[in-house]
């Protein structure tokens, strides 16, 4: 019997596929659709303290090899998502869900995390250190000093399971430096990667999204090699207690297989979910199971992180 079940932070999930924060997760209705699909769990849209309208539309465009977005963190505010998660804790006590969040300033991040800490929320929190789309706000995890300060302050009071969503890194020294920081903290996971920030997609003579004169985060097929490199680089460098969630360029079961081979314990689907809807989870799971069967693998543990290198 082939199983795609997995664990994150000690919680069991019957499937390793879930949505990526930003897709199909703005409203309770969208979250319920993911919850009731073949996905193992869901993550909410990244919540800020209060409701945010986000950037002007058009701000998300599917394109042939992926997507470009500059959403600007539109969301219904922390309480909306937290209330829903607390409801689900009562109605579906055997399942665990992810809450994504970040403040518009370090102070707001602490306010939000303290509210979550004080709440009855028993699930997993993902701190988004990588949104590329809020004008004037850099991607936090590209600034190692600020990242370390936030993590050291957060872990002084936050005692629930916490992971971080990372932007892609492109330099071996940056992998080393980032991993050295993350290894100092009791993180449950890192999620690699958010979109590749600030790309441009052009049709005829024009950009395709309005904010920032068309600059936006790139997802989909364009980014799989970068996503796999980040998953594997952190798998090689992080202490084993920090698990990896792989996100980026997952269209097929083969893509999910490659993320797991690089070290991912959970795989998130963004652009493909936006293009195909929640039926994508069933299709990608079935494709992944066929590959596992062909190779004689019964569980993700049989091949997780076992990427082969070419000998000298
Ligand atoms: C956005 O809301 O701009 C996308 C979220 C993200 O990239 O973190």
Automatic annotation (TrEMBL):
FMN binds at residues 45-46, 128, 165, 193, 220, 248-249, 270-271. Its cofactor is FMN. Its EC number is 1.3.-.-. InterPro entries: Aldolase_TIM, DHO_dehydrogenase, DHOD_1A, Dihydroorotate_DH_1, Dihydroorotate_DH_1_2, Dihydroorotate_DH_cat, Dihydroorotate_DH_CS. The keyword Transcription regulation does not apply. Binds 1 FMN per subunit. Keywords: Cytoplasm, Flavoprotein, FMN, Oxidoreductase, Pyrimidine biosynthesis. It is an enzyme of class 1 (oxidoreductase). Pathway: Pyrimidine metabolism; UMP biosynthesis via de novo pathway. GO terms for biological process: 'de novo' pyrimidine nucleobase biosynthetic process; 'de novo' UMP biosynthetic process. It holds the Pfam family DHO_dh. GO terms for cellular component: cytoplasm. It is found in: Cytoplasm. Gene3D superfamilies: Aldolase class I (3.20.20.70). Homodimer. Catalyzes the conversion of dihydroorotate to orotate with fumarate as the electron acceptor. NCBIfam families: PRK02506.1. Belongs to the dihydroorotate dehydrogenase family. Type 1 subfamily. This is Dihydroorotate dehydrogenase. The lineage of its organism: Bacteria, Bacillati, Bacillota, Bacilli, Lactobacillales.
């Amino acid at each position: 019997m082939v199983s795609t079940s997995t664990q994150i932070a000690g919680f069991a999930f019957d499937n390793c596929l879930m949505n990526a924060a930003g897709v199909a997760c703005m409203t309770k209705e969208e979250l319920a659709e993911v919850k009731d699909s073949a996905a193992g769990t869901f993550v909410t849209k990244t919540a800020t303290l209060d409701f945010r309208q986000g950037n002007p539309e058009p701000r998300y465009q599917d394109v042939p090899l992926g997507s470009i977005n500059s959403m600007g963190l539109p969301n219904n505010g922390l309480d909306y998502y937290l209330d829903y998660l607390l409801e689900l804790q009562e109605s579906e006590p055997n399942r665990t869900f992810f809450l994504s969040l970040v403040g518009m300033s370090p102070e707001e991040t602490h306010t939000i995390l303290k509210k979550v800490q004080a709440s009855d929320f028993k699930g997993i929190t993902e701190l988004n250190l990588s949104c590329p789309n809020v004008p004037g706000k850099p991607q936090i995890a590209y600034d190692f000093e600020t990242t370390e300060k936030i993590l050291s302050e957060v872990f002084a009071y936050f005692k629930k399971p916490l992971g971080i969503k990372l932007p892609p890194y492109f330099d071996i020294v940056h992998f080393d430096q980032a991993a050295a920081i993350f290894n100092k903290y009791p993180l449950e996971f890192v999620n690699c990667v958010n979109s590749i920030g600030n790309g441009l997609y052009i049709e005829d003579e024009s950009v395709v999204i309005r904010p920032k004169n068309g600059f936006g985060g790139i997802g989909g097929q364009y980014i799989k090699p970068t996503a796999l490199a980040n998953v594997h680089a952190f798998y090689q460098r992080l202490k084993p207690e920090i698990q990896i969630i792989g996100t980026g360029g997952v269209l097929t079961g083969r893509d999910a297989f490659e993320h797991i081979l690089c070290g991912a314990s959970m795989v998130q689907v963004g652009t493909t979910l936006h293009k195909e809807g929640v039926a994508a989870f069933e299709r990608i799971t079935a494709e992944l199971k066929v590959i596992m069967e062909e190779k004689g693998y019964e569980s993700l543990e049989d091949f997780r992180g076992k990427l082969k290198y070419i000998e000298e």
